[in-house]
Amino acid sequence: MLTDKLKQLIRQSYKAIGENLSNFNPRKQQTFLIAEIAKTLAGEYNKDRKIITIEAGTGTGKSLAYSLGAIPLALARDKKVCISTATVALQEQLVDKDLPFLKKHAGLKFDFALVKGRQRYVCRQKLTQAVATDSPQAGFTFAEKPKASDIRTLNAMHKALIDGSWHGDIDSWKSPIPHHIWSQVKSDKHSCLKTLSEHHHCPFHKARETMEQAHVLVVNHSLLLADLELGGGRILSAPDETFYIIDEAHHLPKVTRDHSSASITLRGAIDWLTKLRETGDKMAKLIKSQRTISPALKLSDDCQDLLIEMQKVLTFVDNNASVYFLENKSLENKITKNKSNGNFKKNDEQVYRFDNGIIPKTLKNWAEDCNELSKKSLSHLNKLYSALIEAVKDGDCQMYLAEPVLSEAGFMLQRLENLQALWYMYAKTDSDKAAPMARWLQIQEPTKSSARQDYLLCASPIEVGFTLEDKLWSQCEGAVLCSATLLALNSFDHFRFQAGLKNNDGSQYQQVTSPFDYQNNAQLVVAKMANEPSAIEFTDELIEKLPKYIEQGSASLVLFSSYWQMEKVAQALKDNLKLDIAVQGELSRQHIIENHKKHCDNNKVSIIFGTQSFSEGLDLPGDYLNNLIITKLPFSVPTSPVEQAQAEYVTAKGGNPFMTLSVPDTSKKLVQACGRLLRNEMDEGVITLMDKRVVTKRYGKQLLDSLPPFDRVIER
Hints:
Elements: H1 4-19, H2 28-41, E1 51-56, H3 62-77, E2 80-85, H4 88-105, E3 112-114, H5 124-131, H6 148-162, H7 179-185, H8 203-213, E4 216-220, H9 221-229, E5 242-247, H10 252-259, E6 262-265, H11 266-287, H12 293-319, H13 321-324, H14 331-339, E7 351-353, H15 361-393, H16 399-427, E8 437-444, E9 454-461, H17 465-473, E10 478-483, H18 493-499, E11 508-512, H19 518-521, E12 522-526, H20 538-550, E13 555-559, H21 563-577, E14 581-583, H22 589-601, E15 606-610, E16 627-630, H23 641-652, H24 657-674, E17 685-689, H25 693-696, H26 698-705, E18 711-714
Parallel strand pairs: 1-10, 1-11, 2-4, 2-5, 3-4, 5-10, 12-17, 12-18, 13-15, 13-16, 14-15, 16-17
Antiparallel strand pairs: 6-9, 7-8, 8-9
């Protein structure tokens, strides 16, 4: 329960924030959110299920709301707050602006830290050895002699790290670090261990010390999932000691699914497996202990057996390639047909998805053998790895000799973990009561670096709700899930299902509307169109009618569903009407936005053409956007094997994948797209929707009604 003292502290903090913000007006939506979050996390609604899901419209001030609703309570109960976001922009806003301001003016004593994954930090020991010129280990990190430019970059990084002008994370370096350099000096979980004296002062471990002292942690969804996968509390604070704030929560299910998937290339895996036995032998020779003989021999034997089974799988796929892939040559006809209606999406890789996730019995048997052998190999390699670490700590092996072997073994461990995960998902028998795994093959065409055709084996869960419930919701002290787009068709049901929440499990749900005056500040126009987007004539109709709607504003954003259609329309308008259009892909997103703002500041007409990625996370307040045009409802055809498997599963259960998956998903995307127009309370403008299906199809009314209450005009 919230004590009177704590309630008073929250009120005082909110008042203090208001006094130090210019033009601050207390918003009832914001104060309501603060109260609901605090009461939920305090257990006033349900002492065992302290979870609240909130859709907070643009302008409600949700960052301040969840900070004031959670941090005072966490401090009072000696808990931590973990704020997880999907975008770097929001992380930077929280760490550089929101939390420092709160700490300075709210009267709350707390520390905060931005927490990044291990591989975002340089390994001090690896960097030192990479630049060494007078030691036996000099240059060991590189398979070939590094270029002069590489050496200059490494020396500059080392100097900055030593003199303290750089803290060792890749994001704060003054210029992009080439991947081939960073991959050699970045921290990794297998060799950069704090137990080794050489790594005591590595940037990663320093960052972790700062994290341990912080009351508020700012992370991304991927790092959160990585911690949960390890059982929770291994990277971040323990779930039962933490209040989680999941901002941009609509991204969480997809990130969870991606994090739970695995893939391998068959020939690529066989290549590095042939070298694994050599790695084991190197480690055994360095350790010089009788107890390493057994795991080294077992590793060699199991690795050889694993190679035999993997070769069987490769031969099987090779022999069936004509069945799995050549039938897809008909894609060329589909591509030609769809180019005309704007549905063309380039696909250079051929994919074969196993129907209902069911793989041939022969392949399943090999998968079971590969799973068991890779698990055994992983166990043997871990034993050798741990023994070498102990040998270094005990002084039985010199560090400069062990370091390159540990680095090599670390690489092998990561590869072997992924290999085992893939074969586990192929060997697993799916339950009749749950969604099956999505399993598929994909051709990897020869490249400059590899002249051989290879096959990518992939597996992914279709549904991840159980994972989130098992690893997060049931384990955490409390959680707040928030976003501007969690509702689909005015219901939490779709998100609830994706995130593993249930309507009657004690969790709370709130929809907080935006304070914006949508009725008076924005108009939604449904354009009169003769053709539906599927028609061949639709693109030509866009070319004909778009100029009329572009002219109604000085700062326009036109959103398309396909690159092909966007480029064709843009070129036609440039050629016919000499319009100056900034087209996504011609310049970087940042440059397009910067040029757009310059034009607007100079009272020049500015037009941006973009696709789906411009409908989310784009902030153009005030006069930077007053005319938003959506050419087509943002339906996405299930093109990925996972999406196709999901639709197949819904159909098998007697459902309609279009109404169950596509329409709710489109509803959220449409709300996100429309959300680009009004970013502040004083913003004004027009939204034009050029898709007649919103008035001709049964689902159209549902989509329109899910939007904010714009002044609506339907052209007849």
